[in-house]
């Protein structure tokens, strides 16, 4: 498989149209040169990063050694658990889940190898497109986003770009105005009278848009030159296509350790999982960073989407997952385009990261409940097996969150050494696939962050799903405040 590598390089330029002498960030350039990425990785490596990676391997190898040394104690623990009143049923359940997950993984692997992104169609065949960029407290980032969109290899007469300031408290509106000066009639900007949330900003864009296809792009994201045309081409090839997910990578992956880890995680989540989901026509979530929707499909569910509630409360999060769910419910296909790259910013600190995951977790709980209402009905003329399998897989992770949390706490209380050592060994085994996958697709050196991310998530974010389930009715974006 040919490696497809992305790097972003920001450069500064002065512009006579701006009312400031400050040099500003103009655009990001994408490259497919693997050697350049390796050099970039070497330049951005830090002593702290090296220490973390070294510590990761020491922990995993230490865990493997302890499991080997204490094998007899581990066997005795298993026997004691089997002989207990609750242990044997739990073991049967765990074994059944293991075989189900293994079978699902092998099926996804088969689908991944079958997957191929749809090639871009010609300019004549490209549909008209409205790009909607909602922004809240993004500052200069929205300028960079809008310029990258305007620089797209997409027929100018077929492209409408709308930027909507959702009542920002910083200088976001100023940078939108500067982008308007720069781009002229190619860009239309609007300002919400007050902050009403991303869903309402998008809703205004949907109502103002004239394109056959709506594309939503987050205001802290940068698109590749051919992203838009690759993102909308499936609608021409597949008339049953209702939505398309872009391929999200991390923009700030050279700035801090968490973005480095998340970039490897994102590649696994998008390029592996969504490739498999796309083969089933049932990608479960089109990301806010870059997604496309057929106009007719959007207006079919727009009233339900903007007025969506959960447990009597208006839904102000998970607008992307909700829109995807409602389009799947219409019997339409939701696909993934690996060649539609977008770079987006992610939190660089633990607090911002767990808040983002809580928001995603709550949305996942809510939308799985919504999906349960139609997925086992005759919602699609074609095979419904794939959508149902994906739903079951997602639901099992939610249903089993508390039983496995309780077992984990029991294991720690009874045999802490066995728990930590066996968990570290499991991470070494399971995460090796992610390492090999990323190394094959992009960079061998960066691939090892998959191990660090697994350890970090397992021991510091394990509580996210149980907490999201318990607080699924709560509102709030959590990460939208000024830094």
From TrEMBL:
Q: Which Pfam families match?
A: Glyco_tranf_2_3
- What Gene Ontology molecular function terms does this protein carry? hyaluronan synthase activity
Intracellular or extracellular location(s): Cell membrane
Q: Which SUPFAM superfamilies match?
A: Nucleotide-diphospho-sugar transferases (SSF53448)
Q: Which InterPro entries match?
A: Nucleotide-diphossugar_trans
Q: Which GO terms describe its biological process?
A: extracellular matrix assembly; hyaluronan biosynthetic process
Gene Ontology cellular component terms for the protein in this record: plasma membrane
Record protein name field:
Glycosyltransferase
Taxonomic lineage of the native organism: Bacteria, Pseudomonadati, Bacteroidota, Flavobacteriia, Flavobacteriales
């Amino acid at each position: 498989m040919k490696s497809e590598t992305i790097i972003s390089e920001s450069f500064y330029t002065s512009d006579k149209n701006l009312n400031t002498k400050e040099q500003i960030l103009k655009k990001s350039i994408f490259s497919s040169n693997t050697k350049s990425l390796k050099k970039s990785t070497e330049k951005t490596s830090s002593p702290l990063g090296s220490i973390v990676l070294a510590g990761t391997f020491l922990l995993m190898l230490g865990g493997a050694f302890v499991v080997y040394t204490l094998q007899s104690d581990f066997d005795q623990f298993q026997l004691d658990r089997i002989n207990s009143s609750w242990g044997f049923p739990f073991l049967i359940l765990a074994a059944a889940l293991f075989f189900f997950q293994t079978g699902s993984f092998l099926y996804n692997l088969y689908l991944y190898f079958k997957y191929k992104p749809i090639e871009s169609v010609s300019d004549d065949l490209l549909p008209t497109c409205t790009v909607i960029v909602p922004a809240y407290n993004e500052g200069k980032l929205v300028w960079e986003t809008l310029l990258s969109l305007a620089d797209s290899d997409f027929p100018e007469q077929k492209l409408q770009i709308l930027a909507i300031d959702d009542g920002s408290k910083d200088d976001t509106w100023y940078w939108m105005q500067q982008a308007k000066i720069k781009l002229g009639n190619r860009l239309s900007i609007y300002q919400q009278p007050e902050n009403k949330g991303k869903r309402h900003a998008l809703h205004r864009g949907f109502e103002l848009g004239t394109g056959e296809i709506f594309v939503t792009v987050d205001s802290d994201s940068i698109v590749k030159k051919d992203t838009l045309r690759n993102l909308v081409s499936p609608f021409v090839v597949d008339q049953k296509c209702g939505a398309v997910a872009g391929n999200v990578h991390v923009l700030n992956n050279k700035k801090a350790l968490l973005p480095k880890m998340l970039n490897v995680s994102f590649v696994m989540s998008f390029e592996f999982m969504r490739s498999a989901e796309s083969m089933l026509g049932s990608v479960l979530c089109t990301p806010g960073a870059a997604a496309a929707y057929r106009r007719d499909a959007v207006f079919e569910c727009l009233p339900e989407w903007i007025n969506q509630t959960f447990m009597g409360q208006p839904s102000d999060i998970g607008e992307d997952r909700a829109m995807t769910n409602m389009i799947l419910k219409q019997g339409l296909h939701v696909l993934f385009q690996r060649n539609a790259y977008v770079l987006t910013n992610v939190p660089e600190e633990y607090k911002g990261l767990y808040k983002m995951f809580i928001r995603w977790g709550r949305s996942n709980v809510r939308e799985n409940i919504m999906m349960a209402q139609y997925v086992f009905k005759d919602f699609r003329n074609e095979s419904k097996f794939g959508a149902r399998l994906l739903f079951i897989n997602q639901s099992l992770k939610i249903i089993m969150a508390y039983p496995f949390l309780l077992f984990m706490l029991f294991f720690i209380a009874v045999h802490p050494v066995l728990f930590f050592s066996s968990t570290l060994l499991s991470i070494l085994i399971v995460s090796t696939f992610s390492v090999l996958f990323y190394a094959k697709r992009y960079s061998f050196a960066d691939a090892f962050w998959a191990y660090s991310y697994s350890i970090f998530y397992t021991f510091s974010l394990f509580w996210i799903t149980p907490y999201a389930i318990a607080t699924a009715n709560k509102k709030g974006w959590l990460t939208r405040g000024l830094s």
